[in-house]
UniProtKB/TrEMBL annotation:
<keyword id="KW-0732">Signal</keyword>
<dbReference type="InterPro" id="IPR012334">
    <property type="entry name" value="Pectin_lyas_fold"/>
</dbReference>
<dbReference type="InterPro" id="IPR000070">
    <property type="entry name" value="Pectinesterase_cat"/>
</dbReference>
<keyword id="KW-0964">Secreted</keyword>
<keyword id="KW-0063">Aspartyl esterase</keyword>
<dbReference type="InterPro" id="IPR033131">
    <property type="entry name" value="Pectinesterase_Asp_AS"/>
</dbReference>
<comment type="pathway">
    <text>Glycan metabolism; pectin degradation; 2-dehydro-3-deoxy-D-gluconate from pectin: step 1/5.</text>
</comment>
<dbReference type="GO" id="GO:0030599">
    <property type="term" value="F:pectinesterase activity"/>
</dbReference>
<dbReference type="InterPro" id="IPR011050">
    <property type="entry name" value="Pectin_lyase_fold/virulence"/>
</dbReference>
<keyword id="KW-0134">Cell wall</keyword>
<feature type="domain" description="Pectinesterase catalytic">
    <location>
        <begin position="13"/>
        <end position="297"/>
    </location>
</feature>
<protein>
    <recommendedName>
        <fullName>Pectinesterase</fullName>
        <ecNumber>3.1.1.11</ecNumber>
    </recommendedName>
</protein>
<dbReference type="GO" id="GO:0045490">
    <property type="term" value="P:pectin catabolic process"/>
</dbReference>
<dbReference type="Pfam" id="PF01095">
    <property type="entry name" value="Pectinesterase"/>
</dbReference>
<keyword id="KW-0378">Hydrolase</keyword>
<comment type="similarity">
    <text>Belongs to the pectinesterase family.</text>
</comment>
<dbReference type="GO" id="GO:0042545">
    <property type="term" value="P:cell wall modification"/>
</dbReference>
């Protein structure tokens, strides 16, 4: 790295006491890798990495030790007097390419909304840029935890917890060896993927993951008409509703979504009750989804 910045709540032990001050010290048009090393502690801040500030690494001291948390919801009014919206509710937002986070928790601690509540989306992290990697991270929230908005992303050994649509957006992302943990007492969905045309190279692939928790969960619901989600080699607890997938109340989408399972296991993976428009993939069909080439990872990871 060409820049190493230490964040510690004790001013004697670090360069800065907050992540925001550390980020402010990086050039706006950042040319090379800047590593922010964050000591253990709870950092109560809302953070945004601007679009031109590429090559930022946030290195925590372990996901259970270094926690960034805030509590905005979509219906909260922002500085301009308008509601923040889901996009603006994120505790941590990334708008620049080549971002890396390791060993840290991103949390939105807004309480889980009652069923049917409007405007309670509470994003823990939003990633709106290309070529980002998250290793050994935790994302904790209730409704709309991880906004996988756009770009190619790699998540390895991460823990993602939420209730409704807790991984959502139009990213092209590989979730490798991650734990997806549901905390809901009603119906929820693991994913809401927003691919909107045949031409869009986006989708979510979950490989060697575990799905655990409470409630009744769809694997996904079709936010976009061409929504694309695949689960491979994934263990599912009995919390997955037998139908597995939901068309967002629009039967037309059944014709155009791509929802598949490949060699999944556990009581929630049973293919018996699945909707007719989901697929049990063959080896050949699964192949493009289950390696780094799904996100062109060999080029940039």
């Amino acid at each position: 790295p060409c820049k190493l910045i230490k964040v510690n709540r004790d001013p004697k032990l670090g360069d800065f006491t907050t992540l925001n001050k550390a980020i402010d010290s990086i050039p706006l048009f950042n040319p090379c890798r800047a590593v922010i090393s964050v000591a253990p502690g709870i950092y109560r801040e809302k953070i945004e990495i601007p679009a031109t500030m590429a090559y930022v690494t946030i290195q925590g001291s372990g996901a259970n030790k270094t926690i960034v948390r805030w509590d905005d919801t979509a219906d909260k009014l922002g500085p301009n007097g308008q509601p923040l919206g889901t996009y603006g509710s994120a505790t941590f937002a990334v708008n620049a390419p080549y971002f890396i986070a390791k060993d840290i928790t991103f949390k939105n601690k807004a309480p889980p909304p009652p069923a049917g509540a409007i405007g309670k989306q509470a994003v823990a992290l939003r990633i709106s840029a290309d070529m980002a990697a998250f290793l050994n991270c935790k994302f904790i929230g209730a409704q709309d935890t991880l906004y996988d908005h756009k770009g190619r992303h790699y998540f390895n050994n991460c823990h993602i917890q939420g209730s409704v649509d807790f991984i959502f957006g139009d990213g092209l992302s590989l979730y490798d060896g991650c734990r997806l943990h549901a905390k809901t007492n009603t119906y929820g969905a693991l994913t809401a993927q927003k691919r909107e045309s045949m031409l869009e190279e986006t989708g979510f692939s979950f490989v060697n993951c575990q799905v655990t928790g409470s409630g009744a969960l769809y694997l996904g619901r079709a936010w976009g008409s061409f929504s694309r989600v695949v689960f491979a080699y994934t263990y599912m607890q009995k919390i997955i509703t037998p139908r597995g997938w939901y068309d967002w109340g629009d039967k037309q989408r059944q014709m155009t979504v791509f929802y598949g399972q490949f060699k999944c296991s556990g009581p929630g993976a049973d293919y018996g009750g699945r909707v007719s428009w989901a697929r049990e993939l063959t080896e050949e069909e699964a192949q493009p989804f289950i390696s780094l080439s799904f996100i062109d990872g060999h080029d940039w990871l």
